[in-house]
Design a protein that fits this description.
2 copies of one chain form a homodimer. By secondary structure, chain A is α/β, with parallel strands linked by helices. Chain A contains 8 helices and 7 strands. Chain A folds into 2 domains: 6-54, Orthogonal Bundle (Helicase, Ruva Protein, domain 3); 80-169, Dna Topoisomerase Vi A Subunit, Chain: A, domain 2 (3-Layer(aba) Sandwich), CATH 3.40.1360. In chain A, the strands form 2 sheets. Chain A has a 5-stranded mixed β-sheet with strand order 4-3-5-6-7. In chain A, strands 1-2 form a two-stranded antiparallel ribbon. In chain A, helix 7 links the parallel strand 5 (138-141) and strand 6. The radius of gyration of chain A is 20 Å and the shape is elongated. The relative contact order of chain A is 0.10. The structure holds zinc ion (2 copies).
């Protein structure tokens, strides 16, 4: 590809590192961008510049936003339900927001416990969760229905036992072995409504 | 997604318009970019800026490069074989270059004839091809083995009949109904070596 110039080659290599894109689809994407230079490539370049400048991680909950505390943490109506929903990552928070689960707050763990991958309690935002939990009437563990997710849920339940806060998990409705972000919105809503005490 | 800020939402919407990405994979890609801000998001933003500024379409052959005439059209060694390879789009040119087909030149049609899609001869760079062809000893039609591709090949053969230039097509080796850009490099090389006169 040396004939296309280093600018194009580098763009292909960077796009190929995005999840869901490989070298071939990255080449197709770059050609598509070049064909749609005014309608897509230049707007994407500008949007990426703006996002780089604007995006921050919320220091309270771990959400991605353009301010910290994020819009969810700053919204006083979000406190009324008293629900704090614990998720593995921001994609799951977005999935629950798309499902319209209501005026709740979130806590993004940043992963799940996974000894095989070297992920221990100190790698997740667990201390922050224990600190926040007493401000809520109920903590809902919305972790994936995987082995690691359920191990993490047990660990969090133990950590929160001393705080007196009620802990629940999403109802079964989440398919065993399935990942939250793949579910349809109705299933997610039902699973939250039918959550069970731990 | 209104809670994530317009910068993030707009970035998702633009990425979702790339081939191979939908809304869900675009959201995953944006979260991945944000997680890898220094290693991936900022370099990608810079690479896109540079590509927007640098990329041009070669006015001779239709290739994508950072100069016009492109590196292939400017390279005098590329003239020695006397071969002009006609392709539908730049992805096919790149596929042939990756296959190492040798010191050849290319002509990018910008598509294939497709009456159903409203693509007629005037929509492809056919006049430019007819003008260029007499400079070469042989024109190789490396269009996809689809109905539209073969229709286009027949049309080009007719148009070039008056020029006296030899016209060939890639050997069968290209699977019938298959697309060039999906083939492995060995198959592409073999198909060029075994090209047949029309
Ligand atoms: Zn927040
Ligand atoms: Zn050129």
């Amino acid at each position: 590809m040396s004939n296309s110039g280093p600018e194009i080659e580098q763009l292909i290599q960077l796009l190929a590192r995005l999840p869901g894109l490989g070298p071939r689809s990255a080449r197709r994407a770059v050609l598509h961008l070049i064909k749609k230079k005014d309608q897509l490539m230049i707007p994407l370049s500008a949007a990426l510049d703006r996002a780089v400048a604007a995006v921050v991680i919320c220091e309270v909950c771990g959400n991605v936003d353009t301010r910290s505390p994020c819009g969810i943490c700053s919204d006083p109506r979000r406190a009324e339900s008293g629900l704090l929903i614990v998720v593995e990552d921001v994609a799951d928070l977005w999935a629950l927001e798309r499902a319209g689960v209501g005026a709740v707050r979130y806590h993004v763990l940043g992963g799940v416990l996974s000894p095989l991958d070297g992920v221990g309690p100190e790698d997740l935002s667990l201390d922050a969760l224990v600190s926040r939990a007493p401000q809520f009437s109920e903590v809902v563990l919305a972790v994936n229905a995987t082995v690691e997710g359920q191990t993490t849920a047990h660990y969090i339940t133990d950590r929160l036992a001393g705080t007196g806060v009620k802990v629940s998990r999403l109802a079964h409705g989440v398919p065993v072995g399935g990942e939250l972000d793949y579910l349809d919105e109705g299933t997610l809503s039902q699973a939250l409504k039918a959550r069970t005490a731990l």
